[in-house]
Amino acid sequence: MFFSMYMNLIFIPILMLSPLMCISSNNWFSMWISLELNMLSFIPLLIFNKKFISDSLILYFLIQSFSSSIFLFSSLFFFFQLLNYKSILFIIFNKMFLFSLIMKLGIFPFHFWFIKLILSSSWMNCFIISSFQKIIPMIILFHILIHYILFFFLIIFSSLMSMILSLNLMNLRTILGFSSLNHTSWMLMSIPLNKLFWMYYMMFYSIILFTLINLFNILNLNYINQMNLMFNFYKNLIKVFIFFNFISLGGLPPLLGFLSKWLIINLSLNFFLYLQIFLLIMCSLVFLYIYILMFINMIMFNFSINFSISMNFFIWKKFINLNFYKFIFMFLSTNLFFFIIFIF
């Protein structure tokens, strides 16, 4: 226990300072060093997690090492300026450079290692993977020549895949993992357009995610059905606090999560990216549906327990079959969509 705390005091400051090193770097080699410091400082945090699965650690190390090798190999040509930016080789190495960063971010089509790592990590490590580990690759993306068609294709498909794979899940880590892929797509959307908006989105997302994960860690929650039981024993204030953090993460106005999305929407429409932002909004509405449905099912679960003595089972079954919660979601999502159209 003491040794684990001692190791945290050493490696967490390195983990937090490595993005500052990348920001202050003026060449590719020093950016690569900051990437490696970030990875090497995070591995001990995974090792000293008692519940961590070694297979996930090996997979994480192999993916990060392979992507770092591609990054270093490609950056050497940029560092020594060996290629003309119009040549075919420059385009190839630029694509390799981009895919090495996409691999480190863990978005489509390299999302498999990210979800597996989330599943086997502690809650606080999940927060680090979903926030601090993404900062340096995104900072580097500011400095490269981006092929916009390919870049937006990866963003949209990452958001669509996270939306599809997040349906009918029970594990809270997996839900937040796919939610992180969706939010990463929103952040990547702002990178070619405005650095300041990317910083705002990352900051707001990290605040909401840290609040949720800290609550899950304190309450020892891992699955949705555990939240059903939690709603019976904890005070209403905690229930409301978790609910509002979830719908803020989903982007329901006028909460903080919507403000970050609203900034990206406004920015994208100024650059006439109508289709891209429409697809991102639709994917975010599905995540909002998942969050609201999760909590309405909890309310139904507790309502059925409290009134099971006085209510007939068949009447209750007919009441559930009305699916009125779906109409509530349709009302909320429609209002969100038309609210966005009305503003712009």
UniProtKB/TrEMBL annotation:
Gene Ontology cellular component list: mitochondrial inner membrane
Catalyzed reactions: a ubiquinone + NADH + 5 H(+)(in) = a ubiquinol + NAD(+) + 4 H(+)(out)
Family the UniProt entry places it in: Belongs to the complex I subunit 2 family.
InterPro entries listed in its UniProt record: Complex_I_Subunit_2 (IPR050175), ND/Mrp_TM (IPR001750)
Name of a matching Pfam family: Proton_antipo_M
Gene of this entry: nad2
All copies of domain NADH:quinone oxidoreductase/Mrp antiporter transmembrane, residue ranges: 25-280
GO biological process, one term: mitochondrial electron transport, NADH to ubiquinone
Source species: Pristaulacus sp. ZJUH_2016030
EC number: 7.1.1.2
UniProt KW keywords: Electron transport, Membrane, Mitochondrion, Mitochondrion inner membrane, NAD, Respiratory chain, Translocase, Transmembrane, Transmembrane helix, Transport, Ubiquinone
Keyword Translocase in annotation: yes
Membrane topology field: Multi-pass membrane protein
Annotated function: Core subunit of the mitochondrial membrane respiratory chain NADH dehydrogenase (Complex I) that is believed to belong to the minimal assembly required for catalysis. Complex I functions in the transfer of electrons from NADH to the respiratory chain. The immediate electron acceptor for the enzyme is believed to be ubiquinone.
Protein's name in the database: NADH-ubiquinone oxidoreductase chain 2
A single GO molecular function term of this UniProt record: NADH dehydrogenase (ubiquinone) activity
Top-level class of the enzyme under EC nomenclature: translocase
Places the protein is found: Mitochondrion inner membrane
Principal subcellular localisation of the protein: mitochondrion
Transmembrane segments annotated in the record for this chain: 57-82, 88-114, 135-164, 197-219, 240-265, 271-292, 322-343
